[in-house]
Each structure stands twice: as C-alpha cells, then as structure tokens.
C-alpha cells in the first residue's frame, strides 16, 4: 500500500518540475515578443478523464500556441507522455479534426532523491532539453 502514495508523489513531483521549467521558458519567450503567443495551463485530473478520455491520471499540463497544443500527462509505469495536436489558424477546432500525435514518452526514476529522465530511445535527457524540444515544436508552423 505504501507504493501507491510514493508512485503518486513521484508523478506529481515530475509533472510539477516539468511544468515549472516550461512556465519559466514560456515567460522568458513571451517577454521577448509583443504578441505573447504561448500559454501554459495546469490540467486537473478530471479534465484528462472527461475531455481526453485518459482515466486514472494524476494530473498534467498543456502548452498552447495559436497553431498547436501540447499536453503532458502521467502514464504507468514511470512514464510521462507528451502528445501534440495542430489547431486551425484561429485556434478553434477545425471541421476535419487533426490527429493527435505522440511527441515523446519520458521514463523517469528517482535515484537518491533526484529524478533522472530517459527519452523514447532510452538515452538520458535533461528536463530543460525536454522543454526546449517541446516548446520549439509548439511554436513551429
């Protein structure tokens, strides 16, 4: 029984860490441009379940630009999934819905109180690099 709270704590900590890094990156980028195109929002577990049909998650967040959106959420075992979707030019849902694309699956482990991340290939990756990759994707047209 003690494994579930630890697992939940690890997922929440990892998502909070990625959110914090993402928020800082977006604030920095938006401060350098006049149109402030990027937004970031925490998503409650109910949102993931109701709108994305992803039950049993501990939370997540999304990054939105006028042309794309990205969602980070937890997935067992010790994975963070990052999905992306194109939006139409006005930010609304297009008549013909574009497909959601899996951008990244990050595995993580807690080693000595420090989280270590690996990408889809199993290679070690820094969380700041993860955010850079995702922010570049969501900004591209």
Please specify the SSE layout and strand pairing.
Elements lengths: L2 H29 L7 E5 L1 H7 L8 E5 L3 E8 L3 E8 L14 E11 L2 E5 L5 E2 L1 H13 L2
Antiparallel strand pairs: 1-2, 2-3, 3-4, 4-5, 5-6, 6-7
Helix pairs in contact: 1-3
Unreliable stretches, pLDDT < 50, 5 or more residues? none
Number of helices: 3
Radius of gyration, in Å, reads: 15 Å
Please tell me what the overall shape is.
globular
Strand content: 25-35%
For the biggest sheet, the summary is:
7 strands, antiparallel
Main sheet: which strands, in order across?
A: 1-2-3-4-5-6-7
- Which structural category fits the helices and strands? alpha+beta
Number of strands: 7
Can you give the helix content as a percent range? Answer: 25-40%
* SSE pattern, N- to C-terminal: HEHEEEEEEH
Arithmetic mean pLDDT = 83
Distance between the termini: 46 Å
